[in-house]
Amino acid sequence: MKIKEIRVIVASPGRNFVTVKIITDEGLYGVGDATVNGREKAVVAYLEDHVIPCLIGRDPMRIEDIWQYLYKGAYWRRGPITMAAISGIDIALWDIKAKAANMPLYQLLGGASRDKIMIYQHVGGRDIEETVEGVVALREKGLVAIRAQVSIPGLPPIYGTGPSTDQSAMVQTLPVEEVWSTHKYLPLVPKLFERLRDTVGWDLHLLHDVHHRLTPIEAARLGRDLEPYRLFWLEDAVPAELQEGFRLIRQHTTTPLALGEIFNTIYDCQQLISEQLIDYIRVTSVHAGGVTGLRRIFDFAAIYHVRSACHGPMDVSPIAMGANVHVDRWVPNFGIQEFSGYLEATHEMFPHAWEQQGGYLVTGEAIGHGVDIDEKVAAKYPYKQAYLPIARAEDGTLWSW
Ligand code: KDG
Ligand code: MG
Fold first, then answer.
1. Given CA atoms 262, 265, 269, 273 in this order, what sign does their dihedral have?
2. Positive or negative CA dihedral for 103, 143, 374, 55?
3. pTM beyond 0.70, yes or no
4. Residue 338 alpha carbon, nearest atom of ligand 1
């Protein structure tokens, strides 16, 4: 079998997606996700100019060799654009291999370790009451794990707080600038979780995402203040370029820590994992080297009692979600899967075998990863340049988010 053609399809069914379609000379094809939210066209150029010409005529069964060829062979290793391109190719090649084997992908990985995949979804609110109402409503739909965020009083709602859970509402042609205050945020979050525990009790898993906005000592304080409410995790407390920064947080709190949605390789989390500074690693198939990359990172994490928790917002396409849930079904050290849901147009463009059943996703038994792209539907939704907002402190200082 040989790779005959590779197409890159860019479309915007509510969010922008970059999809790779690899077609073989035997007619089998596979699809992969290569989306980097807000930087989509950089990946398209990388794929079309530097990756695809090198792969035509190669054996699609040699997934590892192609991965190494694109990683080591480029000389320029790592980075979000390179790794998203590798991820898109890798996910499509695993799809082809599983189709050739006439198996669902999870079977090829070693078979099911579980029947269903626990997910968490998001709730935000303009104030604590609104978030509590949202959490109660989502629990009534069968969710067993919910991420709760709240707007900071006196400031307009900002990304990742409230009130919208539909991230598409926050996407703009150019990035909007929002206002952040650590001082106002820190005492608010424990009050939210106190109210939540009073209302929903202790069965529900509750999570919170800081979006990288704190320093280690501030995160240590927040983690400690949240201990009475037994969070499932505190996510992205601090930007993690300085992995050893998490030592300080870890020394001060037993609140579990999750990190990694912007990581591309095992090297981004090597110290965090080997020093047991985090509890959940949040890498996802589209940004961390595809199925091959996830397998490598999760196996390494298992040695150190760190569990998987693939990133799964609306800008991780249903294809990457398909790859994730097949890995989730197999991975022995599974933790949880993020699932923000998708807009109707996104479902229409990506027919998928995975499905939500209350608080869980199931893979389905379709061969491959079970997700396709309908190119006719894609043609109806042309690419539109779009960005998520950025954050500044109240004095105008540019802030992490
Ligand atoms: O593109 C960025 C979003 O995917 C990210 O901000 C969402 O933090 C996020 C999350 O946890 O899903
Ligand atoms: Mg996050």
1. positive
2. negative
3. yes
4. 12
What is the CA(401)–ligand 1 centre distance, in A? 10
Name the residue among 276, 237, 275 with its Cα closest to residue 259: 237
Does residue 369 carry a catalytic annotation? Answer: no
Structural domains of the chain sorted by starting position, each given as residue range(s) with its CATH number in brackets: 3-103 (3.30.390.10), 108-367+386-399 (3.20.20.120)
Q: How far is the centre of ligand 1, averaged over its atoms, from the C-alpha of 167 (Å)?
A: 9
**Sole residue written with tokens 């609140």:** 255
- Residue appearing with tokens 């999570």: 207
CB contact set of 117 (below 8 Å; sequence gap of 6+):
325, 328, 329, 334, 337, 360, 361, 362, 363
Cis omega (within 30 of 0) on the bond before 163?
A: yes
- Burial bucket for residue 392 (CB in 10 Å: 0-12, 13-18, 19+): middle
Q: How confident is the model at residue 112 (pLDDT cuts 50, 70, 90)?
A: very high
Write the pLDDT tens digit of every residue in 304-321.
999 999 999 999 999 999
Please tell me the residue having the least CA distance from ligand 1 atom 3: 313
Tokens 């409503």 sit at which residue?
Answer: 137
pLDDT at 167: 57
Instruction: Tokens for 349, please give them.
Output: 């463009």
Give me the DSSP letters along 377-401: HHHTS-----B--EEEETTS-EE--
Amino acid at 361: L
3-state DSSP call for residue 147? strand
For the Cβ of 268 lying below 6 angstroms from any atom of ligand 1, the answer is no
Q: In the structure encoding, which two tokens stand for residue 331, read together?
A: 């991975």
Q: Let me know if 159 is a catalytic residue.
A: yes
In single-letter form, the type of residue at position 160 comes to G
